[in-house]
Amino acid sequence: MEEPAIEVEGLRVRRGGQDVLRDIGCTVRRGTVTGLLGPNGCGKSTLMRSIVGVQIVESGRVTVLRRPAGSPELRRRIGYATQDPAIYADLTVTEALRYFAAVLGAPPSDVDRVITQTGLTASAKTVIGRLSGGQRGRANLAVALLGTPELLVLDEPTVGSDPELRDELWQLFHHLAATGVTLLISSHVMDEAARCDELLLLHHGKLLAQATPDVLRERTGAPDLEQAFLRLIKGREGAAR
To answer: Which residue, of 40, 50, 65, 97, has the greatest Cβ tally within 10 A?
Structure first.
């Protein structure tokens, strides 16, 4: 059996004296689109930062592509798009991507490729500071796609996108997975959950469930994934009383 792309064991993260993640354990299979779902503030971004290796953790172990999270050799093997775009506002889209391509050692031709993939062709010569929030998010995603990342960790990549673009991005995500890329995608929008091969459901820093969308619906007897999530929350809260 092939080793998972991501393996998390007993992960605990504290911030400001409070537990942000509590005893998280999960795996992400290679070549899949895994959704990290849960309400705002539940710990999704913290878990993603822990996987990328930029988060201080209290305890536990995170293994990524057979290496400890944060290992220097992983830097060019992982594409990471944060929720808040981390790109230079005074450069055009093309200029910013050329800069990051040079830093990553990606071929110059990658710039045109990722601009097309993320639907930024019409905005390629626009200064990033003048882009809408959704367009800046797409530019941020384009940076993560540069090179040949084996793992993409994408924090709410479709926020601010119109329905048509969201659909195009999800088609792209599944195309990448079909080529062997592993994707971990966070969202607080439950209708995106059905587009994923597998789901990780977080609530108050705890992992409620890891399963496929169909298994979650079957397990909870819910008509849709939003109801399945709510039933899991109520079941846990009832068991805690």
So the answer is: 97
